[in-house]
Amino acid sequence: MKQYFDYCFQYGKDAEKRFSEKHLIDISYPTKQQDIYDHWDVCGVLPIINNNKHKFDIKSSGKLKYSTDKIIMDSIWVEGTNISGKDGWVKGKADFIVFERETSWFVVNRKELLNLTMQKLKENNFKKGKGIYLIHTRDGRKDKVTQVLFNDMKEINYYELTK
User: What pLDDT does residue 4 have?
Assistant: First the structure.
C-alpha cells in the first residue's frame, strides 16, 4: 500500500511540475503546512488569466491510463470535506483548480467550482450515494465527495491549455 501511495504522490508532484514549468511564470511553492491545510500546490502568474500571481491546486488523474478515444474521462471527484472532517480542497485557499485531462489542462476558478457544485447538489436535493451530484462518504471516514461533470464546468469561466 505504501508503494502505491508513494507512486500516486510522485505522479501528482510530477503533474504540478509539468503544468507549472509550461504555463506559469514567477513560480513559488507552498510550505508543507500550506500544501496540506490551505490546499494549493503552486503560486505563479498564468498570463492567459492576467498578470497577477495566483494560487493553483493541481489535480492529476490516474484515470488517464484508462482513457481512450472512445472512453474519455468525463467527470472528476470534488472533495467538499476531507477524511478528517475538515474543509476539502474545493473550500481551500487556491484561486484556481487545474485538472489534468487526456490532452490538456482544464483550469477553473475554485470559488466558481464550489458554487457550481453546491448548486448541482441542491438541484439533486443533496441526495447521498455514489455518482454524479450525489454526496458520497466512504465507510469509516468523514469525507464528503461528489462527481462533477466537465461539461457542466464549462458553464463557469474556464481555460483549457495544451499539455
Answer: 47
